[in-house]
Task: inverse folding
């Protein structure tokens, strides 16, 4: 992350397969463990199972400490989507006050979300700041090969006021890897993605997954902005060990937004609109 964005974020923190996957909106069954069919991954698919399978993390951010903000009109709100949301009216989404979105692009090295191209273009045309995300499958191939596929199939970046850096979605069990092997896989993905795009990949994960599968590794907090999955009505999220603050917060999987049929994940940004734009454009 650019130094200016990193510093600003720290300051603000202190206050199915393609052929069979259903594109219908509505409730989504959560696969257990690593039994996620190729193409079936999306942000939050492993959240419930990871929370049950791993020791719970109850580490809360102390009032006034890193990671605490009071969400209000100055903090942009967003969504994350995949083919599970079906056809989206992005003009209505923008009119509903949604400032940013993360859109599923790829999974492993063979799957591209069938709605990605339409969502990515239509969100851009509606002037929603959007980024692409990759659902990680560390059991199927190397981090470098998956980062290469992601960057070439939707995860690229340009400084156009409307494109966020790509995001790596990490959840759904540890895929048979030790904590050191998982750390190496993530760093392999990060280094390759940065070499191809010039940007630091955002990391999406939950406290349970990160603490269990990486051992609460601190090796990414100075490299990658954190999108923390913590579904709660609390005023601030629980964050993984190894990260002193968060940049994005997925606070529910059951939001409602005009232009989208059925439930959709809702997200918050830790800073103001100016910092969101700075993160998008990689500027101080």
Result:
């Amino acid at each position: 992350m650019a130094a200016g964005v990193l510093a600003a974020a720290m300051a603000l923190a202190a206050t199915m397969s393609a052929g069979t996957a259903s594109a219908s909106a509505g409730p989504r069954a959560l696969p257990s463990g690593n039994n996620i069919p190729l193409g079936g991954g999306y942000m939050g698919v492993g959240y419930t199972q990871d929370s049950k399978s791993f020791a719970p993390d109850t580490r809360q951010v102390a009032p006034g400490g890193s990671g605490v903000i009071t969400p209000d009109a100055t903090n942009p709100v967003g969504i994350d989507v995949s083919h599970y949301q079906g056809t989206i009216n992005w003009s209505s989404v923008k009119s509903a006050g949604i400032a940013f979105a993360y859109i599923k692009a790829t999974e492993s090295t063979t799957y591209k979300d069938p709605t990605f191209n339409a969502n990515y273009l239509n969100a851009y045309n509606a002037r929603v700041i959007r980024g692409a995300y990759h659902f990680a499958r560390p059991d199927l191939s190397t981090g470098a090969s998956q980062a290469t596929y992601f960057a070439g199939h939707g995860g690229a970046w340009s400084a156009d006021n409307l494109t966020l850096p790509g995001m790596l979605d990490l959840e759904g069990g540890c895929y048979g890897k030790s904590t050191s092997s998982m750390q190496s896989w993530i760093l392999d993905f990060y280094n390759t993605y940065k070499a191809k795009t010039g940007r630091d990949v955002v990391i999406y994960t939950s406290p349970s997954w990160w603490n269990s599968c990486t051992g609460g590794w601190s090796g990414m907090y100075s490299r990658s902005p954190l999108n923390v999955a913590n579904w709660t009505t609390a005023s601030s999220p629980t964050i993984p060990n190894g990260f002193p603050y968060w940049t994005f917060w997925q606070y529910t999987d059951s939001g409602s937004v005009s232009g989208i049929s059925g439930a959709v994940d809702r997200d918050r940004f830790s800073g103001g609109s100016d910092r969101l734009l700075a993160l998008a454009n990689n500027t101080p």
Q: What stands out?
A: Confidence is low (pLDDT under 50) at residues 1-32, 57-73. The first helix runs from residue 3 to 14. The longest strand covers residues 98-107.
